[in-house]
Amino acid sequence: MASRALVDELYGKLRLPVFAAPMFLISGPDLVIAAAKAGIIGAFPAPNARTIEDLRAWLPRITGELADAGKDGMWAINMIVHKTYERFDAELDLICEYKPKIVITALGSPKRPLERVHAYGGAVFSDVINPQQARKAADAGADGLILVGHGAGGHTGQYSLFAFIEEVRSFWDGPLIVGGAIGSGRAVRAALTLGADFAYMGTRFIATPESQVSDRNREMLVRSQMTDIVTTTAITGIASNWMKESLDEAGFTAEMLEEKKKIDFGNLHGDTKAWKNIWGAGHGIGNTREIQTVQGVVDQLAEEYRIASVEAEALNSWPHAA
Length: 322
Ligand SMILES: Cc1cc2nc3c(=O)[nH]c(=O)nc-3n(C[C@H](O)[C@H](O)[C@H](O)COP(=O)(O)O)c2cc1C
Hints:
Shape: globular
CATH topology of the largest domain: TIM Barrel
Bound molecules: flavin mononucleotide
Distance between the termini: 46 Å
Number of strands: 11
Radius of gyration: 19 Å
CATH class of the largest domain: Alpha Beta
Largest sheet: 8 strands, parallel, barrel
Order of helices and strands: HEHEHEHEHEHEEHEHEHEEHHHH
């Protein structure tokens, strides 16, 4: 499908141009289904299903419940595409069976699943953290780009979305999703003003009852602020953002956080122990002030977006005549 047509098709279904971003150990069928029912796209990483049999059970549940709710096609799946990830082929077989409109590739080229996803009419969106990766993904045939900027939860980008979006928009006019510290409806609107088609929001959806985290993790989010987020390469080898309180509890000292763990793409997410006890979140954490349902979060985002749009009218008097 021509890529602008895909944006238009999704816009026709959505209440807000938002993806609940895939999060390791956090997003499963409950979150995906609640997101779609609330009017945004729900997404989850395939490795969150601990076995292929689990994934085989999750997919018909998601597609079935969304079809019943009239929310067909409002979900996406995130795949690890690195060659050392041994479940790739089995996951792709299931994806071809259940046909998500969007397959998100992270930590690698979007090329591997492209042909088979296109064959059933799906689109592949590639998650990237700098303009060079964005260009490579575009050249490899990605149907959409996901720019992960500074301040994102989990594996974070280093670049400010203000500049990152503009640089990528200079060579890419296809579907563009952006993420990193987008925590409010006002910020969603700002992302669109900067040139994005959709916002990619992870952290804002962690403290929902539909996520798979513990209540302690939810409560830690509610009491934490931006300055409680630590960026380190010590956990996975890739720069990522975590709540300081969880790092302290796990016994990480300042020196340990300076270290760089060896990257093992094959086991990047397989090492569940790290992610179970050390809890990721991004700079937008200050937007989480209570435990809310996914519907409650989306209602709040919609109201914030509406108010920001009214207030933006006042900005229309700029620029003044010199
Ligand atoms: C705890 C946590 C785990 C994550 N796990 C994954 C993952 O497994 N795969 C992936 O592509 N992105 C993952 N992400 C990144 C999100 O998909 C998204 O890029 C990010 O949350 C956006 O920034 P925000 O958290 O500031 O909204 C994770 C994010 C968090 C907070």
